[in-house]
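Model it.
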Amino acid sequence: MHAPDTEYDADDNFANAAHDFDAEGAIDEDAGTEQLVWQLLLLVNPGDEETALQQFGQYQDATADADEDEFEPAWVLKDIIDWKSGFQAHDDDAAALVEAITELVSRWNLELDWGVEDPTDDEFLAAADTTALIRTAYDALRAHGYTLWLWETGTETTAGWITLSRDDEAMRAIAPALGIEVRTGV
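Modeled.
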């Protein structure tokens, strides 16, 4: 398992990634899928290159025997990062959404204010709107320098990940290059 050759300093964890793209957010047309996957994994694992490397190895294993036109990187990545660096919950499952995002932010010792004393309360969750919960999480994360991203899966699920806010432009360039339609959680 090895990370693809990139012009980025691995110890930098993509801190200067946005500077490597032009004003339109275009990426290097010659960047291969593996290089883009590596860059995405560094973004969704801020400050945790070890996890990004493990997930990259899992990606390489999952795609080793397939031609690039036989799989969509987004769906392979979804399974690899789920509950570690990303989340997916059914659109009407507020409990799973709150639990997943709470688990993800615990990596940085953060606790989000969901607007109630106990966000696991059954009564709160039964009445909760997942769109409102996503906005709440997005706002709370922005205050700490993070961005909540949603992946447009085309299914009845809400999926996404969290990156450092300073890497917003890099995410806007890398995700579409991998065929992943993303938007922020607002």
